[in-house]
Write a structure and sequence with these properties.
about 180 residues, mainly alpha, elongated
Length: about 180
């Protein structure tokens, strides 16, 4: 057991061991690691990283390696949105990041359509008029076999970027046939 060996090593060397999974689960719905503390079913979100850093800092304060917890300057703590802004991460960046995740998930195979759709929809929350995200979302629904949703999003693509829709229909006449029937 890696966990048991790590715990024993930390105890032997008098080094604190922080259960970051427990820290994250305490802020997750139903105790299941997910948003808002986990970003992509694996990596901590900015909020998750903040919570883990806070847990580390608390242990360091308890050990006397930092100022005592009561002396911390909470007025200087920023919200995750403020950190994103300071890093230059805007809505366009977040929309593009979600679009990139859809490509990654699609390359992993058809078992990931629902997750890729989730990220496309989330990207559209940042840029509702993104033709790239709308096109990707329509394609994902098409591949999944949900033609009604695919048609809805292809129609939206036609409103946002008629040239993109024409390109799709030229490459995939079956899509043109479906959209044209309604």
């Amino acid at each position: 057991e890696i966990s048991a060996a790590l715990k024993a090593l930390c105890e032997y060397n008098d080094v604190p061991l922080i259960d970051t999974e427990a820290v994250l689960k305490s802020q997750s719905k139903g105790g299941i690691l997910s948003e808002p503390v986990i970003e992509d079913n694996c990596h901590p979100s900015l909020e998750g990283q903040r919570l883990m850093a806070l847990a580390v800092a608390r242990v360091m304060a308890e050990k006397g390696w930092l100022a005592p917890f009561a002396e911390w300057q909470w007025k200087d703590e920023k919200t995750p949105a403020e950190y994103l802004k300071a890093l230059g991460i805007d809505d366009h960046f977040l929309a593009e990041a979600n679009l990139t995740l859809t490509f990654y998930l699609l390359n992993l195979g058809e078992n990931n359509y629902d997750r890729a759709i989730f990220y496309a929809l989330r990207g559209l929350q940042y840029e509702p008029d993104s033709a790239d995200l709308t096109r990707r979302l329509a394609w994902l629904y098409w591949l999944k076999g949900d033609t009604d949703e695919a048609k809805k999003w292809y129609r939206k693509l036609g409103e946002l970027s008629p040239n993109d829709l024409m390109e799709v229909c030229a490459k995939h006449p079956e899509i043109f046939k479906e959209i044209g029937e309604n």
